[in-house]
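Bench notes, afternoon.
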Amino acid sequence: MNELLRKELLQVRQHARELHDMAAVDVGIDKVAQALCRDYQDRNPLLLTIMNGGVVFAGRLLTRLDFPLEIDYLHATRYTGDTAGGDIQWLVTPGVNLAGRHVIIMDDILDVGTTLLAIIDACQAQGAASVATAVLVDKQHDRKARPGLVADYTAVYAEDAYLFGCGMDYKGFWRNAPGIYAVADSAPAGETS
C-alpha cells in the first residue's frame, strides 16, 4: 500500500460519522434471525453469502439460526476497489445446485440493488423454489434499480451516504470497522453496492 492511500484511509476512518454501533447492528441482526427462524425452520434453506461484503453479516447471523440449513457463497461485483459501480462481474458462482431449493441471499447492503437483482435472476434461472434477500443495511434513497425495491429481511437502515464497516468497504478497506459509518461529507452519488 502506498503512503498516500494509507493516509487517506486513516483520515476517512478518523473523520467518519458512526451511524450504528455494534450493539445496534446486533439488535438488527437478532430481528432478522428471529424472522428467518420463523419463516424457514422447516424448509432446509440454502443461504448464499455475497462476497466479500456479506461475510461479516453472514458470520454474525448464522450462529443465531437454530434450524438445519446449508451455506454457500458467490462473488458478483460492480466494484473493483473503486467507490462507484460499473458492469456486473461474476467472479465465483455457487457450487451447490439451486434447483428446487429455498435460497436466502445474504449481503451487506441494499444500495441501488443492480447486483442483487442480477443475483436473484440468476438463482431463479437455476430453478430455485424461492429466493429471498437478507441485508445488513438498506440505504434510504430514491435511486433503486427498481421502484420500491426492498430486501425481504433488513437489519438496519441508513442515510444516503457512502457507508463502510461491518463488511462494507471504502476502496477495499475498512470492512473490519466495528459498526456502520458514513464517510464525512459524502455525497449521495457514492454507491456501495
